[in-house]
Amino acid sequence: MSIAELPLSPVTRRMTAAEFLALPDEQPCELVKGVIVEMNPPSPRHAIVISNLNYLLTTWARTHNSGLAGGHETALQTKSEPDTVRGVDGFYISFARLKGNVLPEGPLLPAPELCIEVRSPSNRWTDLLEKAVEYLKIGVEEVWLVEPTLAPADRFIESHRLDRDPIRFRMGETLTSPSLQEFQMEVGQAFSGI
């Protein structure tokens, strides 16, 4: 059954994470408190930023043989009863967190060290902050919220952790992370090509 074929009724039946993950991958969506929330497909700008960040993280992870980086709306369950399954734009998970250095089937578990969310024109900043809180509450160490606005001077990456106030890294600055030893990148590298 596709998302479009789900029955509509005045009272929406809540879906479990297992039911949600069994649906075909047709359209970007998330499960929020048991209810499917459809999303717009990512824009080319969004895709390029995520590709840039995943490339940088993958290169660093392979150089240090420390873990795996990925993205593309990867399923990550953040709440239960009612279930919430988010589509993470990007992530890094260390081999220390993975049994046998292999990603499991299904949603990304255990929680990765790092999650990345890139703001789309249809997102409010508060939507991204809500996701960041959910990720941190399930054991993610750090969340990068990325603002890829049209004006280069306004672009930034904001790092969120449970143990400190957010840190905003602007164009021309070097982003470092206590979760990623020896990782560093100039913020502009995330926006290369846009």
TrEMBL record:
Signal sequence residues: none
Protein name, per record: Putative restriction endonuclease domain-containing protein
Occurrences of domain Putative restriction endonuclease (ranges): 18-187
Organism for this UniProt entry: Planctopirus limnophila (strain ATCC 43296 / DSM 3776 / IFAM 1008 / Mu 290) (Planctomyces limnophilus)
Gene3D superfamilies in the cross-refs: tt1808, chain A
